[in-house]
Amino acid sequence: MSLIGHGGKEIVERVVDPKEAVEKIRGLTQIPIRDQIAREVIMISYGFFTPLEGFMTKADVDGVVENMRLANGVVWSIPIVFDMSSEEIAAKGIKEGDTLLLMCQNQPFATLDVEEIFDYDLKKMAAKIYGTEDDKHPGCARTYRYADRFIGGKVTLVNPPKMNEPYDAFFLTPRQMRAKIAEKGWERCVAHQTRNVPHSGHEWLMKHSWIACHADQPVEKTITGVVVSAVMGEKRKGDYIDEAIVLTHDALRKYGYFREDVHLTSIIMWDMRYAGPKEAIFHAIVRTNLGITHHMFGRDHAGVGSYYDPYDAHRIFDTISKEDLRITPIRVLEWWYCPVCGEVTYSGLCGHTKERQNFSGTVVRSIIQDGVKPPRIIFRPEVFDIILETAEKYGFGSAYVNDQYLAQRQPLFTVPPLEL
Amino acid sequence: MSLIGHGGKEIVERVVDPKEAVEKIRGLTQIPIRDQIAREVIMISYGFFTPLEGFMTKADVDGVVENMRLANGVVWSIPIVFDMSSEEIAAKGIKEGDTLLLMCQNQPFATLDVEEIFDYDLKKMAAKIYGTEDDKHPGCARTYRYADRFIGGKVTLVNPPKMNEPYDAFFLTPRQMRAKIAEKGWERCVAHQTRNVPHSGHEWLMKHSWIACHADQPVEKTITGVVVSAVMGEKRKGDYIDEAIVLTHDALRKYGYFREDVHLTSIIMWDMRYAGPKEAIFHAIVRTNLGITHHMFGRDHAGVGSYYDPYDAHRIFDTISKEDLRITPIRVLEWWYCPVCGEVTYSGLCGHTKERQNFSGTVVRSIIQDGVKPPRIIFRPEVFDIILETAEKYGFGSAYVNDQYLAQRQPLFTVPPLEL
Questions:
Q1: How many A×B Cβ pairs under 8 Å?
Q2: At residue B3, what are phi and psi to the nearest 5 degrees?
Q3: pLDDT tens digits for A2-23?
Q4: Domains along chain A with CATH numbers
Q5: Angle between helices A122-130 and A58-67 in degrees, nearest 10
Q6: pLDDT, tens digit, 9 for 90 and up, residues B307-336
């Protein structure tokens, strides 16, 4: 099993046993972190962001902003930064060379070596990463919310979180995912990025990408898989609740819409930046680190509003070499329901363009809100049942995120108590 | 437009203007030929069988039988031979160095340079090509019907046939097909071999192979096509009539089940040998010469009875290098109707193996014979209408070959009158 990840570097693992860590972290300056930072600490520590070993220093941020590369030349498209106000830095007397203890859920969580304290022009960062300075773009808005200083340096997870049900069945670190892929005997597999519950249009995106990925494989055995890689991160009202996303995708395999031996549902933690093409590159990097060989990109991947052309996230891969990015993009247009064909068909093949019926989010939403079972060719009945069940069990009656869910949801993970 | 065909050789074209030929062929010994030989003369002369320039000499037959290669080392899997009885050879005084005038439809048709007259062990030929000596195997039976001598030598078409309606719209020589592919802007295209009218299972074989062929192509334009390559040759009772085969396939494009810009129906002439894996190689060679880059092979390609494992024709491509065969095989398992999915699904992906409903030829046949329109997800209504129309117009009331069709059908082509 290879442990080589993005940039040809070995998968980063910066996780230590809490028992061993406890002596070293006692007395460190404690810094409570918000959820986004906690998620990124977990991703860095388990190597999802290989070759990053921590939050970026100024040279890395500069490289990413100016050239879409880290200071060492490895392709990277989104700044991964730890922000802190100059007031807090002064108040706590933080200086380069210190080690900070990051606190999550009021527990010791990870250490951060303060290698560099720097500031950065946030307008420039936004303009270069998102192609716009518009504060209505959620990625720009997130950038503008950063405090006025960044701390660059390595992180180490000293108190690994425990994943909560139902996520515990779907969280695989890069090392674990690689072991799982080896166990399944997949020589190739294709990542399906999602933050949706799947209708049959999504199913066909996965089937398409499996076929494309499998293209020239011989017949003897199953050596190609689909890895659903659901993005768990900051939720907004109206999003699908996370529990519905993972459990409905898993249902596609459980109820035979995908064979047991070709399909796997998993999660990563990431707060969407909606950076369109640059985010597509970032997603490709993370899935490379998971040991996945191909990555599906559909229409308007990681886009928002009309900031990007629907296929900008396809085109950017024409500018990246196989040496710079090991994963192979599978670029798919649209699957829609065609009433003439009586089935879900591909925009690149079906000629009934006037009759086509797009899978509109609004229509799907109204189906779900009405609670009336749609035809099985649009929505699998088992998927529909699980949407309703998860709404009751986890969503305070709704499959869509509401205020109550935002305030009271079961968190993705629990940081175990650790006495210093 | 490249004119390089199989074996890296330029596409053979051995066709002369009848007006120029007439002086040279007057007085040659006239040999009436049967339909199989006429079809092979046409294929050779237009370069479908490049690098062959004529019927095989003994060294080529030996190479094909023993090593699946011509004497010059180029991969070749089926003997292409011109047989004649020793009695006829003696009666007509044919000797090496002669040129014969092959007569078709009582008209001068082609010349054959008698390079070599030889005999061959037909049992050995059958055993090596078909993997069996069983005379119930139609390929063996065809082999055993050969006369006791073969004549090897170049052929030249001196009186090109005129294709009859409806075939005239679908017959493209290798040079014409390459021009058509260039005109369509296809950088890749995939051949779909057929002797069937298409149900939706066939449609999905084509869609699957298009997706696999298109796999890593960028988004900007249509650069991948499907070329239906229907095999027109000796008919047996119960086969679909040729007119139904070509017109129904064309209807898939005409009525939008394939986009205008991705689909083309064409024909080749060939009497099926049912040689399974070896015939798959042969089909790949012919489509290479047509300028096609990929070739779909489904279950039991060119097989018959239980002489071959359903996927022997997939496995044989593992033994052939890209240097030996330029076309890329796309190996597809089965598409079936799945009542749980409510659609046509792929055996490699769909887990509802107990519920699956194969597209049985018997069921499809009974549907057609009853004349009751099946659901559009199984059989396109326009395809069904054309089956009934062609049955009336060309099939003496039947879409399946019967005695009357065998005796009175409109031939594929007419050899124009040519006075010597």
A1: 122
A2: -115, 20
A3: 999 999 999 999 999 999 999 9
A4: 6-160 (3.10.400.10), 174-414 (3.40.50.620)
A5: 40
A6: 999 999 999 999 999 999 999 999 999 999
Residues of B whose CB is below 8 A from A316: none
pTM of the full predicted structure? Answer: 0.95
CA B250 to chain centre: 17
**Checking DSSP bridges between strand B343-346 and strand B149-157, what pairing results, if any?**
unpaired
Dihedral (CA of B167, A346, B256, A374) sign: positive
Residues of chain A with pLDDT under 50: none
B294 forms bridges with which residues in the sheet?
Answer: B190, B328
CB contact under 8 A, B340 and A253: no
* Residue where the block lists tokens 């394939």: B258
Residue of B nearest to A337 (CA): B343
Decide if A54 contacts A152 (C-beta within 8 A): yes
The conformation of residue A171, written as its DSSP 8-state character, comes to B
Report the C-alpha gap between A169 and A178 in whole angstroms: 16
Measured between CA atoms, how close is B219 to chain A, in angstroms? 7
On chain B, the residues whose CB falls within 8 A of the CB of A219 are: 311, 314-315, 331, 333
Rounded Cα distance between B285 and B280, Å, is 9
Put simply, the answer to whether B318 touches A218 (Cβ < 8 Å) is yes
Contacts of A216 in chain B (CB under 8 A): 212, 328-331
- Inter-chain contact A341–B257, Cβ cutoff 8 Å? yes
Is residue A372 a contact partner of residue A365, using CB atoms and an 8 Å limit? no
**Nearest-CA neighbor of A158 among A312, A269, A28?**
A28
Among B210, B211, B294, B296, the strongest candidate for a mutation testing the A interface, having the largest count of A CBs within 10 A, is B211
Angle at B127 between CA B124 and CA B132, to 5 degrees: 150
In this structure, which amino acid lies at residue A74? V
